[in-house]
Design brief:
10-stranded antiparallel β-barrel; 46% strand; globular
């Protein structure tokens, strides 16, 4: 963050003689209704998800509480859309398999080396058929930072998970940071650097 000058600022520092007064907008406040705002945000979320479709090489570092050295894992991650969602506005399938595991699964056998999950975008929620840390269905609240970044916040059993995903450089890269608290203690921190290998494929037929 840029360090501001130590000189005390007053309101007049932000004014000049030509812009000291700005006339009021005669049209008054915006006429956009809450429903209009909701539709616009929902459309923005669908666009963001569509930009993630394709095949990614995911290079990951995991930092586990109580362990000094991070663990490395390279995955291939494919994100696909369903042609007709059985739930929600849009539906997606996330599937993964290891490219190089560097002994990760031998040390952390609770993680599934290869698998898939289905996710449904329902308003400002993402409903997953399973989680990455638990096999039960999970729901995440979505917050949009800007047109390139979303934050997913999930609570399940004794886990609180916050995931930040940002698309970078015209969607050629994705960067993800994930923080997982268990029983109030930060247990796992992850960083994922993902490189696009393929663009979107054909939509999946409904199951």
């Amino acid at each position: 963050m840029t360090n501001l000058s130590t000189v005390p600022l007053t309101f007049t520092h932000f004014m000049n003689p030509s812009t000291e007064r700005v006339p009021l907008d005669p049209s008054g406040p915006s006429s956009r209704t809450p429903q209009d705002s909701r539709i616009q945000l929902d459309s923005s979320l669908r666009r963001w998800f569509s930009r993630n479709l394709g095949l990614w090489r995911s290079r990951r570092l995991y930092f586990f509480r109580g362990e000094e050295e991070p663990l490395r894992l390279d995955l291939l991650l494919r994100i696909e859309a369903f042609q007709q969602p059985v739930e929600g506005e849009t539906a997606y399938r996330f599937s993964w398999k290891p490219e190089q595991d560097f002994g990760f699964y031998a040390r952390k056998p609770q993680y599934q080396p290869e698998g898939s999950l289905d996710a449904y975008l329902c308003g400002h929620q993402l409903r997953r058929s399973r989680g990455y840390l638990v096999e039960q269905p999970m729901r995440s609240q979505i917050r949009q930072v800007d047109e390139h970044q979303l934050i997913f916040e999930s609570q399940h059993l004794n886990w609180d998970i916050q995931q930040h995903i940002r698309l970078i450089d015209r969607d050629r890269f994705r960067n993800s940071s994930i923080f997982s608290w268990r029983a109030g203690e930060l247990d796992i921190t992850e960083t994922h650097h993902e490189i696009r290998l393929e663009g979107p494929g054909n939509p999946l037929p409904a199951d």
